[in-house]
Amino acid sequence: MNKDNVTGKFDQVAGKIKEKVGEATGSQKMANSGAAQQVKGAAKETWGNVKDTASSVSETARTRTDAETADWKARSEEKAHDVREKITSTAQNVKDKVSDRLDNIQHEQRREREDIRQVY
Q1: Alpha carbon of 34 to those of 22, 26, 105: distances in Å?
Q2: How many whole angstroms separate alpha carbon 28 and alpha carbon 107?
Q3: Do 46 and 52 form a contact (C-beta atoms < 8 A)?
Q4: Distance between alpha carbon 110 and the CA centroid of its chain, in Å?
Q5: What total number of domains does the chain contain?
Q6: How far apart are CA 104 and CA 108, in angstroms?
Q7: Which of 54, 60, 86, 120 makes the best surface tag, with the fewest CB within 10 Å?
Q8: In which domain, by residue range, is 101 found?
Q9: Binning pLDDT at 50, 70 and 90, where does residue 49 land?
């Protein structure tokens, strides 16, 4: 509830009282003024409701945007983690294969040296 809602309700009540007093005293001018004040109050209250609704819609949109941003950030962080995992896993696999190949070469070299020693 905002200022326009409150003043609108006040104007409607005051207008209703003014209208009734005008009718009771036979003053058409006061009764008409009271009716006009009620219309003015209804318009103010309606404007206040419009402002409250617009604020609520804006807050909902902001909340949705914040949630979507957080979700996007979480997904991008997860994707970055997955990429890092793939890179480090690939590096480890390459290292293991190279190490295995080097071990095979060293083993072959030892065998070749032994064969050479046996021949000479």
Answers
A1: 8, 13, 106
A2: 117
A3: no
A4: 66
A5: 1
A6: 6
A7: 120
A8: 3-119
A9: very high
Q: What share of the chain is helix, strand, coil (3-state, %, to 5)?
A: 95, 0, 5
Angle at the Cα of 15 (from 11 to 21), degrees rounded to 5? 150
The separation between CA 38 and the C-alpha centre of its own chain, rounded to angstroms, equals 41
Contacts of residues 12-17 at CB distance under 8 Å and 24 or more positions apart, as own/partner, are 12/37, 12/38, 12/41, 12/42, 12/45, 13/41, 14/41, 15/39, 15/40, 15/41
Q: What is the pLDDT of residues 70-114, one digit of tens each?
A: 999 999 999 999 999 999 999 999 999 999 999 999 999 999 998
Residue in this structure with the two tokens 């983690």, named with its chain if needed: 81
Q: How far apart are CA 52 and CA 44, in angstroms?
A: 12
Residue 111: the pLDDT is 92
Res. 115 pLDDT band, cuts 50 70 90: confident
CB atoms within 10 A of CB 100: 10
26 φ, ψ (degrees, to nearest 5): 80, 20
